[in-house]
Amino acid sequence: MANPFLQVDGLTKSFGDLVLFEKIAFGIAEGQRIGLIAKNGSGKTTLLNILAGKEGYDEGSIVFRRDLKVGYLEQAPVYPEGLTVLEACFYHGNETVDLIREYERCMETPGNPGMDELLSRMDHANAWDYEQKAKQILSQLKIRDFNQPVGQLSGGQIKRVALANVLINKPDLLILDEPTNHLDLDMTEWLEDYLKRGTLSLLMVTHDRYFLDRVCSEILEIDNRQIYSYKGNYSYYLEKRQERIDATNAEIARANNLYRTELEWMRRMPQARGHKARYREEAFYELEKVAKQHFRNDQVKLDVKSSYIGSKIFEADHLYKSFGDLKILDDFSYIFARYEKMGIVGNNGTGKSTFIKILMGEEKPDKGTLDIGETVRFGYYSQEGLKFDEQMKVIDVVQDIAEVIELGNGKRLTASQFLQHFLFTPETQHSYVYKLSGGERRRLYLCTVLMRNPNFLVLDEPTNDLDIVTLQVLEEYLQNFKGCVIVVSHDRYFMDKVVDHLLVFNGQGDIRDFPGNYSDYREWKELKQKQEKEKEKPAEEKTTRVRLNEKRRMTFKERKEFETLETEIAALEEEKKQIEALLCSGTLSVEELTEKSKRLPVVDEEIETKTLRWMELSEIAD
Question: What is the predicted pLDDT for the residue at 549?
């Protein structure tokens, strides 16, 4: 591996009888951007905590390059309550932060001893604009009150402060645990661009598949206690993972066929065996290990009957809702149709969750009426609803709701069988709730919502902390669901798969209905912004022409530049396609992968710069 940052060998971690991973090995080189994928409870967060030195392990070795600067974004970061937002942003300090503190102490000391040397070091470290850079990143993450105590922040806001903390430190290796949780769509796309532009090395756990596809060039998967590497993005991983599953199943099938023959031979052979027979006997036991292994490729099957739903769902008539000067609903009226699947998008603070709470009767509108049909049975998955008795067993949580679950067509499942459809093994079912991972708790919560046979599902950020396998099957279930669905989510991929149209919350009660999924909306929004810019330009040109009474012509030099730019942009676009194809091919060596990963953002930047200049010249050429 060229210039390795991290090398892990023979790493094993278990909790009692539960082995998360066993003798796994992998490395991270300079410039590599790796996504880590696994089912909930397989040890993703545990592995990141081990690498960050926050958790121990049973055996193996972890070696970082000497003097490597590592930044770690935890899933649930914690800060002392007395800190302000800006102080928290500098809490996990670095050399620059220490230098700024040293400078401030010197300023407060009579006579300012050592000031000349400190000024020189501050210049050398570019420390003067460090605070400004931190404020810029915080602003991009929509944290603008830099003096607010962190004790007043929500969990999502603290996560964003922690993200700003690790980004401003500019680590060599960035380890991120679910970085897009609690980010709205604009923030997610900003972070996507930020990470793509940089040359840092990255190891990341995320359920956001668009984010994973666009940022990472390699996937690591923990499956059945082992680790598998795929040298390509998420789309490439899906293809190659299926090939691996098919090959493993074929190997098990071949081993089983041969095993039956060898088992017959073992039963016929006398106990006293010659050398050749003993060799065959040893081979038999190795074959038995392969034949008897169980390849776990479980699928969550959310095949639950929904209750009958009538033609009247709900009617919102002239609804108003405000909190002080903040408008949530401003004369909002809407008639919800049968089997409608609606997505709700908008920046944080525009009122998405408040709207849901009004619909569910948890908040009252200031004015207006909401009429809900008699046959409507809500299934509500909310951020606040994830509450269990920690000392209860998983099976008891479900049995408290129902001993038997009706699936329709005369089919029934016991509570235990139902839990197995959600990947809860018999051992896990009889384990206590406090032992579950965050993702397993969310899966259990989803299970308790769906088993009540609702006909109108209201899902508020259902994708947070769910693994990708569960998300895929939840998407399929919602596509076939015989009822109504409202989804509030920042997961673009999930929204594209599930919803028919969007309610777009623009803030201050401005709510628009968009006929399409999120990608359709994003494409329309970009086109609209482009058209608005183009409308402004002719107005400026018209004023100029009236004043000058003629259109400026291209100079000879500009004409040559215009022609050269067309050729250069075409060549760069071709180079970009080739690099992306190579990165997904899985044929590159580590050195080549590092080189191509560094080259891609440079090519992107050159294309953008040259395209902007070409557009400027094309306006003169028209």
Answer: 37
Beta strands of 74-159 (E only): which ranges? none
Distance CA 583, CA 236 (A): 10
Q: Which residues pair with 341 in a beta bridge?
A: 485
Tell me, yes or no, whether 112 and 81 share the same domain.
yes
**Which domain, by its residues, includes 455?**
314-516
Instruction: Write down the pLDDT at residue 446.
Output: 87
Instruction: Report if residue 476 sits inside a domain.
Output: yes
Position 545 pLDDT exceeds 50: no
Distance of CA 13 to the CA centre of its chain: 25
- The Cα 285–Cα 287 span in angstroms is 5
Mean pLDDT over each residue of the chain, to the nearest integer: 83
Q: How confident is the model at residue 550 (pLDDT cuts 50, 70, 90)?
A: very low
Candidate from 7-16, 151-160, 254-263, 339-348 with smallest mean pLDDT: 254-263
19, β-bridge pairs: 14
pLDDT at 216: 93
Residue that finishes a domain, picked among 237, 268, 288:
237
Q: Pull the structure tokens for residue 128.
A: 């003067």
What region, left, alpha or beta, does residue 495 occupy, with left being phi > 0 and alpha being psi -120 to 50 degrees? Answer: alpha
- DSSP conformation class of 151: G
pLDDT given for residue 89 in this prediction: 85
Q: Which of 425, 422, 440 is nearest to 301 (CA)?
A: 422
Measured from the Cβ of residue 151, the count of other Cβ atoms closer than 10 Å reads: 11
Does 294 fall in a domain? no
The domain boundary, picked from 470, 486, 516, lies at 516
Residues 6 or more apart in contact with residue 119 via CB below 8 angstroms: none
Domain contains 263:
no
Same domain membership, residue 493 and residue 562: no
| Pairwise CA distance, residues 215 & 34, whole Å | 9
533 and 444 co-located in one domain: no
Q: Which residues contact 392 (CB under 8 A, 6 or more apart)?
A: 432, 433
Tally of structural domains, the chain:
3
